[in-house]
Amino acid sequence: MPVDMAELASRARGFIGAAMDNVLVIYAEKGMEPFKKPLTISVSLLLAIYVAVYRPLNARIGDTAFKLRNLHAIATGAGEYADAKKRLMEYQSKLPLLKDKDDWLNYLLMSTARAHAITYDVLSAQKEESAGNFIIVSRDVEFLATYDALGKWLEDIENSPISLRVVSISALRDRDNPVNAKVSAKVLTLFIKAGQDTLASGGTPK
Question: Among the CATH numbers 3.75.10.20, 3.90.400.10, 3.30.70.60, 3.30.1490.20, which is that of 98-192?
Answer without folding.
Answer: 3.30.70.60
